[in-house]
């Protein structure tokens, strides 16, 4: 697990163009390669995304967790019309306790449809609160990624809220884990390890 503390500066955010919101994979704009951001509601996914990319427009985050129902797409780079570039697809948050069973089933269907489509999905970035352990949803996402031969990076967010003892315990807990392709401890608030995440994202487009 990568736990370094390099700081990612605001000026290093990835240039991006917001392409809109979409209900299913077949409606997404064309792109040569794609990377998806996935995470439980309240995992800090939206804050992390805002710390990583500098988009011309970003949808407002609802104050009500679990209310987003659509995928948001961003073209990374300076040329919004470049269909040979890298696109980032931000999935709606899942797992919120008050979300309807219909939406939870719809999320699984949306993700599976996306990964089984003919789109060139290079990697998934799975966001999780570092104070939690993977639950059924995270393990299912890891299983699907393995079946589809898609790289999966687990981002343990909010590590700034852990003390040294808790961080050491976290590192020990995840040592030798084989479920995920790679594990990265990050903090959107303190901008820790965002340089590693930025490199992972951009390398997915090559």
Automatic annotation (TrEMBL):
Database matches in PANTHER family: ENGB-TYPE G DOMAIN-CONTAINING PROTEIN, MSS1/TRME-RELATED GTP-BINDING PROTEIN
Residue ranges of domain EngB-type G in the record: 31-206
GO biological process terms, semicolon-separated: division septum assembly
Cofactor: Mg(2+)
Organism name: Turneriella parva (strain ATCC BAA-1111 / DSM 21527 / NCTC 11395 / H)
Keywords associated with the record: Cell cycle, Cell division, GTP-binding, Magnesium, Metal-binding, Nucleotide-binding, Septation
Signal sequence coordinates: none
InterPro entries: G_ENGB_dom, GTP-bd, GTP-bd_ribosome_bio_YsxC, P-loop_NTPase
Gene Ontology CC, one term: cytosol
Homology family: Belongs to the TRAFAC class TrmE-Era-EngA-EngB-Septin-like GTPase superfamily. EngB GTPase family.
Role noted for this protein: Necessary for normal cell division and for the maintenance of normal septation.
Protein name: Probable GTP-binding protein EngB
One GO MF term attached to the UniProt entry: GTP binding
């Amino acid at each position: 697990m990568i736990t370094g503390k390099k700081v990612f500066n605001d000026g290093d955010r990835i240039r991006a163009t917001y392409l809109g919101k979409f209900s299913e994979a077949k409606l997404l704009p064309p792109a040569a390669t794609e990377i998806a951001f996935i995470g439980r509601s309240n995992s800090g996914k939206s804050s992390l995304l805002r710390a990583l990319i500098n988009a011309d427009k970003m949808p407002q985050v609802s104050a009500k967790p679990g209310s987003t129902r659509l995928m948001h797409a961003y073209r990374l780079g300076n040329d919004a019309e470049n269909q040979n570039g890298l696109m980032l697809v931000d999935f709606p948050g899942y797992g919120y306790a008050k979300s309807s069973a219909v939406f939870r089933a719809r999320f699984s269907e949306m993700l599976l449809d996306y990964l089984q489509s003919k789109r060139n999905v290079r990697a998934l970035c799975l966001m999780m609160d570092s104070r939690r352990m993977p639950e059924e949803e995270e393990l299912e996402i890891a299983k699907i990624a393995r079946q589809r031969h898609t790289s999966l990076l687990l981002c343990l967010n909010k590590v700034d809220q852990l003390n040294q003892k808790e961080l050491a315990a976290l590192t020990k807990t995840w040592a030798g884990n084989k479920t995920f392709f790679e594990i990265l401890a990050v903090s959107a608030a303190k901008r820790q390890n965002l340089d590693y995440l930025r490199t992972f994202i951009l390398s997915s487009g090559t």
